[in-house]
Inverse folding.
């Protein structure tokens, strides 16, 4: 019979991009593309998410890897910011500083100042400290100050000396000597104006000793009272000196603080800090008196800090936590490694004398702090896999504040420092970039996800093959050449890259949007063009890059082909065999995808077991493949068991298959093998088959059609093309054909054929060369057709099974009567 109606014409086997449609000489003539190609849905979602100024409207960018989501989203956000700044005055971003908290040093305060003022504040406080040191040292070393202090000290000493003289005279009148000793003033009895030695005192009679002890006790009371007056005089002296110091300090520093406090008077936190700093200075004037206390060690610590005390000048240090002095417009931060410290900041520590030291100068910002007022882009999977990042990020979004904490402290892995800086108020638009599967998982298992990521921007891995998108592809290639530093492409090279983009998605009407693969091809084509010494990259260089990449990765494919050619894996490409078909499968091994034929056999025999899937019985079959086999029983019953029971036992097997089988793309192949076994009509082994089937016998489209065809073509080519070989595919897969040019050329020359069918009847006609036969009104089929033979076989098997069961029943009745 004539099978030409099922053959696919060569011009339908691939879409060819015409280089003549391009008006440029090379891509250097084109402006580089810095935008999305055919991603209207994703762009509209991003625009919506960026426009809604609500903390919950953060964006989840979804799509396959390699589509350039991160770089494109960043570029797009920067473009939106630039366009907005052209229309409006850009909003300045405040600087954020941490300052010393005098009430609780372990709780530093955070303050925002105008853009670029953070460094200025730090320098102003540093200069203030220098001027305080210089001014107070000069004040405390002045002759007037020293004279005043000397006068206060001498006056106090005079009063103290007078008290001692009065007490000494009183003691002498009572017969005692008041003598100063290292342990304090002591009263010593006198005899004839001379002190009595201890031995002499003990030699006195008891009555005399008791009299002297009584007088000494009375004098001791007066001595204690006098000493209290001396101490009060000393206290008054110290207070007078302190008051003098405070008056001198107030006079010296008032003018230094006045202008600074006035400058930041509207900033409550800074104003309070400067006021407290002034009070602290007046309360610690002693540290400004001695140059020794101000000396710094070579390690950067003051002597007091080396003794475990805080640096007395630590309050004068301002930490510029977030410096936006060079930032223009809202910041756009991409955090490539979103671990806890990189995202939320960290508290650094210094090891000192067996312990760790930390203060507000060791606070370091994270990406969320740097992105305040702008946008933060992170990879969703990295955020979820880094410990503690996801729950902390959710809290930060909900509370609109970022806290600096150490997650290791919560698990007892690090001794707690006690530093708890004030949280930083934030207004950040978070953009997470991940795949659709992760988005669905978060939506199902995280109840907070929907509340804080209300916008989904879904990037399609393929775009429509429109003239506009083709032109955009050309400008994208121009941008790739510019970014990669490669030579430009001529129109033929651009056309070949676009054909490759269609091949990536196996669709004549679509182009791949996984631009990482396109960039990779551009860079590899540059190598072959440079080896060729040409000025521009043409189609032959692009094709060479494609071929060389396949050659670098297809060692496994070559091994399988070699095993087929040597007969280790048994595949027939000639003659015809009953119950045997060449099925096609696709192997995807990470960096390479290729097709491989597999021999599928079917045997049928009398019984009621139905179809036995040997792969399933040996636990080598996946669930989808099991479903495909079960559908076969539905088709056979629907087609041939309307007027009689389906009396069939059949077994299906993927020969020489020692690993799992999954997918339903071989279900039509298995059905052809069963029909051949039932009808006794052999199947052409030179035609391989792919396609799934439903219960009504309609052939359904499958994936990997190009690799499957090319895989069988390679086997036939190795055995010798005879003009009778080919591949049978679903008619609905015609739009997916983007075959290699050598396969198309073989079809043009009549050496190889591609057949497309819509139903099992059409497919069995191609494979056997006999008509399938349509069902007549009486339920039968035309004589000699495949369906008639199958139906007759089912009728015969049903009758034989009925007779066998009747005979078995009679035999059992005879045995029971005996």
């Amino acid at each position: 019979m004539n099978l030409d109606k099922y053959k696919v014409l060569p011009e339908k086997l691939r879409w060819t991009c015409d280089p003549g449609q391009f008006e440029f000489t090379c891509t250097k003539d084109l402006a580089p593309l810095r935008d999305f190609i055919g991603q209207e849905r994703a762009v509209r979602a991003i625009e919506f998410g960026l426009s809604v100024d609500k903390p919950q409207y953060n964006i989840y960018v979804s799509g396959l890897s390699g589509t350039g989501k991160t770089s494109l989203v960043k570029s797009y956000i920067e473009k939106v910011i630039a366009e907005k700044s052209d229309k409006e005055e850009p909003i300045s971003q405040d600087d954020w500083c941490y300052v010393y908290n005098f009430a609780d040093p372990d709780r530093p305060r955070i303050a925002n100042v105008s853009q670029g003022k953070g460094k200025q504040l730090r320098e102003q406080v540093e200069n203030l400290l220098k001027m305080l040191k210089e001014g107070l040292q000069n004040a405390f070393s002045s002759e007037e100050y020293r004279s005043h202090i000397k006068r206060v000290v001498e006056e106090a000493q005079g009063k103290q000396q007078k008290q001692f003289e009065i007490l000494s005279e009183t003691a002498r009148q009572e017969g005692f000597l008041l003598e100063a000793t290292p342990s304090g003033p002591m009263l010593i009895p006198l005899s004839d104006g001379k002190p009595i030695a201890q031995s002499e005192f003990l030699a006195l009679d008891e009555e005399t000793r008791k009299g002297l002890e009584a007088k000494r006790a009375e004098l001791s009371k007066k001595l204690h009272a006098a000493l209290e007056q001396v101490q009060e005089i000393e206290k008054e002296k110290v207070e007078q000196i302190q008051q003098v110091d405070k008056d001198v300090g107030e006079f010296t520093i008032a003018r230094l603080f006045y202008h600074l406090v006035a400058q930041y008077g509207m900033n409550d936190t800074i104003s309070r800090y400067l006021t407290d700093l002034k009070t602290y200075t007046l309360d610690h004037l002693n540290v400004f008196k001695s140059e020794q206390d101000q000396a710094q060690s070579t390690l950067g610590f003051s002597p007091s800090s080396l003794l475990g005390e805080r640096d007395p000048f630590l309050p004068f240090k301002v930490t510029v936590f977030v410096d936006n002095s060079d930032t223009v417009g809202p910041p756009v931060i991409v955090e490539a490694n979103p671990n806890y410290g990189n995202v939320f900041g960290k508290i650094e520590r210094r090891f000192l004398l067996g312990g760790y030291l930390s203060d507000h100068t060791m606070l370091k910002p994270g990406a969320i702090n740097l992105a305040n007022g702008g946008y933060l882009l992170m990879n969703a999977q990295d955020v979820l896999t880094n410990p503690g990042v996801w729950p902390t990020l959710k809290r930060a979004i909900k509370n609109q504040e970022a806290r600096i904490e150490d997650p290791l402290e919560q698990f007892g892995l690090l001794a707690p420092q006690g530093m708890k800086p004030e949280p930083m108020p934030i207004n950040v638009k978070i953009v997470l970039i991940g795949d659709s599967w992760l988005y669905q998982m978060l939506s199902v298992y995280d109840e907070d996800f929907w509340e804080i990521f209300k916008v989904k921007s879904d990037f399609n891995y393929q775009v429509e093959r429109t003239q506009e998108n083709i032109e955009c592809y050309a400008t994208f290639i121009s941008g790739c050449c510019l970014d990669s530093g490669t030579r430009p492409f001529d129109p033929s090279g651009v056309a070949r890259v676009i054909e490759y983009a269609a091949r990536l998605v196996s669709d004549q009407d679509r182009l791949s949007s996984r631009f990482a693969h396109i960039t990779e091809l551009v860079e590899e084509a540059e190598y072959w063009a440079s080896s060729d010494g040409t000025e521009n990259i043409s189609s032959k260089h692009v094709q060479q890059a494609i071929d060389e990449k396949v050659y670098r990765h297809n060692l496994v494919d070559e091994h399988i082909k070699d095993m087929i050619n040597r007969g280790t894996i048994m595949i027939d490409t000639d003659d015809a065999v009953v119950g045997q078909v060449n099925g096609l499968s696709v192997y995807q091994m990470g960096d390479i995808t290729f097709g491989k034929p597999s021999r599928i056999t079917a045997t049928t025999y009398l019984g009621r077991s139905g179809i036995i899937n040997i792969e399933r019985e040996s636990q080598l079959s996946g669930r989808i493949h099991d479903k495909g086999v079960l559908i076969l029983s539905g088709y056979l019953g629907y087609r041939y068991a309307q007027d009689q029971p389906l009396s069939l036992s059949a077994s299906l097997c993927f020969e020489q298959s020692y690993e799992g089988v999954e997918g339903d793309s071989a279900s039509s192949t298995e059905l052809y093998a069963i029909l051949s076994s039932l009808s006794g009509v052999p199947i052409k082994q030179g035609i391989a088959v792919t396609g799934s089937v439903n219960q009504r016998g309609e052939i359904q489209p499958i994936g990997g059609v190009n690799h499957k065809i090319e895989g069988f073509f390679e086997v036939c080519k190795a055995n010798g093309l005879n003009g009778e070989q080919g591949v049978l595919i679903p008619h609905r897969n015609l739009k997916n054909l983007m075959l290699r040019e050598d396969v198309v050329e073989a079809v043009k020359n009549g050496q190889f054929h591609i057949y497309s069918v819509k139903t099992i009847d059409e497919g069995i006609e191609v494979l056997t060369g006999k008509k399938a036969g349509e069902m007549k009104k009486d339920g039968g089929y035309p004589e000699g057709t495949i369906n008639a033979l199958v139906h007759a076989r089912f009728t015969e098997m049903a009758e034989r099974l009925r007779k066998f069961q009747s005979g078995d029943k009679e035999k059992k009745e005879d045995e029971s009567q005996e």
Observations:
- Residues 292-308 have pLDDT under 50 and may be disordered.
- The CA atoms of residues 580 and 601 lie 4 Å apart.
- The radius of gyration is 47 Å.
